């Protein structure tokens, strides 16, 4: 829908390159059905059904009561950056100088800072297709051109060194990838990541690696890109593993030489990340909180281990077992349903007839989106079981 605006209110051209986030349309429709008394099972939103543990909430309340609510340093609380550094040491065996850590207002702010620092007008940035839709819009917001490279199941839906070699040209500046990925839940293998980073390094490019789901890895010990190349920029978050979505808190690890650049940008664009959220996040690294987070990670794995075989039994194609996050990217083209060639129509039918909210593939790229839907298993196992029963009836199975 176009809106005629007075000349002095005409929006900047860059806005037209940013598409609506269609996932949220499905969420709004499901919410409206609930308000009308209809029981809808949500498997659409990428948000844990768990919230911050009591020890974390208590730390926030203590900060508020104590008046510890004023601005922090633009790079974040020193104590929090040291705690994040300690987390890298204990989980990954990495020695990350806290001076390289930039605490941000969520991973989204971190990605915006990274693109502001590295992407110039006309620069091309490679990313896999499918991928999280906002990633390409972050690049577009700074005048860059996101180049989505079809990444098939054989490559775990991830950008490979061969993709880099085949698509790099004189305008290419770098890559932006996520491991584990939204919408696929798949990670790059260490060998795949090492080869891809080497291909980028050979061409003098940058690599931004989104690791926000790495704490939710199920079949292997996760390997941070920082263990392979300390010149990459990694993005992480307190939203997923740490269950703090609405607290808007994340972090970057940047090369030491770029830390002043990111500090200058953070000072001007954000001043600092939310102080109360930073104070609360200190409690995330206590043994009590980490024990709770590990229990939750095992619960997500339990859900995955139920959902994927059940979807395959119903006829959904899941060629790669997702090994992280809480998503399944499923092919619907073999389903016995008249709308199985159009994922958008299929998802609306599932919502209206089966009362299950899932999302179509067209948010996530251009490589066969009409054949794919995304399931989120960030909801209780009992509700997932009920959702599968509804889908079974909907498909006549």
Q: If you had to describe this structure to a student in words, what would you say it looks like?
A:
The structure is a single chain. Helix 2 (54-65) packs across helix 9 (275-281) and helix 4 crosses helix 5 (133-141). The radius of gyration is 21 Å and the shape is globular. With 397 residues, the chain is α/β, with parallel strands linked by helices. It is built from twelve helices and twelve strands.
Average pLDDT, all residues: 95
Q: What does the radius of gyration come to? A: 21 Å
Structural class: alpha/beta
The low-confidence parts are none
Strand numbers in spatial order across the main sheet: 2-8-7-6-5-3-4
Main sheet makeup: 7 strands, mixed
Number of helices: 12
Helix/strand order: HEHHEHEHEHEHEEEHHHEHEEEH
Helix content: 25-40%
Shape: globular
Number of beta-strand segments: 12
Proportion of residues in β-strands:
5-15%
Distance between the termini: 39 Å
Fold topology:
Elements lengths: L21 H14 L5 E2 L11 H12 L12 H15 L8 E4 L1 H13 L5 E6 L3 H9 L3 E6 L10 H7 L4 E7 L11 H13 L3 E5 L22 E5 L12 E4 L5 H11 L5 H7 L5 H28 L12 E5 L11 H12 L1 E2 L1 E2 L11 E5 L4 H14 L3
Parallel strand pairs: 1-10, 3-4, 3-5, 5-6, 6-7
Antiparallel strand pairs: 2-8, 7-8, 9-12, 11-12
């Amino acid at each position: 829908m176009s809106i005629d605006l007075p000349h002095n209110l005409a929006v900047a051209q860059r806005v037209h390159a940013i598409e609506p986030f269609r996932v949220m349309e499905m969420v709004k429709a499901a919410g409206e059905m609930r308000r009308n008394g209809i029981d809808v099972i949500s498997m659409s939103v990428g948000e844990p059904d768990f919230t911050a543990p009591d020890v974390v909430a208590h730390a926030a309340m203590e900060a508020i009561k104590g008046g510890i609510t004023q601005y922090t340093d633009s790079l974040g609380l020193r104590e929090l950056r040291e705690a994040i550094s300690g987390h890298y040491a204990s989980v990954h065996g990495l020695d990350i100088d806290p001076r390289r850590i930039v605490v941000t207002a969520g991973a989204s702010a971190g990605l915006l800072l990274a693109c502001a620092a590295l992407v110039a007008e006309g620069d091309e940035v490679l990313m896999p297709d499918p991928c999280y839709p906002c990633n390409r819009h972050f690049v577009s917001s700074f005048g860059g051109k996101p180049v989505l490279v079809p990444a098939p199941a054989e490559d775990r839906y991830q950008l490979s060194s061969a993709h880099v070699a085949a698509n790099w040209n004189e305008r290419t500046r770098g890559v932006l990838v996520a491991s584990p990925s939204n919408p696929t839940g798949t990670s790059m293998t260490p060998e795949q990541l090492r080869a891809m980073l080497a291909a980028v390094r050979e061409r003098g490019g940058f690599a931004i690696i989104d690791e926000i789901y790495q704490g939710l890895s199920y079949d292997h010990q996760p390997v941070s890109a920082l263990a392979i190349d300390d010149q990459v920029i990694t993005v992480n978050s307190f939203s997923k593993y740490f269950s703090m979505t609405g607290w808007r808190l994340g972090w970057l690890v940047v090369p030491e030489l770029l830390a002043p650049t990111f500090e200058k940008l953070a000072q001007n664009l954000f001043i600092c990340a939310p102080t109360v959220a930073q104070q609360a996040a200190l409690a995330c690294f206590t043994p009590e909180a980490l024990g709770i987070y590990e229990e939750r990670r095992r619960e997500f794995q339990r859900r995955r281990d139920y959902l994927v075989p059940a979807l395959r039994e119903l006829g959904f194609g899941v060629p790669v077992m997702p090994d992280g996050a809480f998503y399944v990217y499923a092919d619907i083209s073999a389903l016995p349903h008249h709308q199985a060639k159009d994922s958008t129509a299929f998802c609306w039918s599932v919502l209206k007839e089966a009362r299950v909210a899932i999302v179509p593939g067209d948010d996530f790229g251009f490589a066969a989106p009409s054949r794919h839907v995304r399931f989120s298993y960030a909801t209780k196992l009992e509700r997932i079981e009920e959702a599968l029963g509804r889908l079974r009836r909907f498909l006549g199975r």
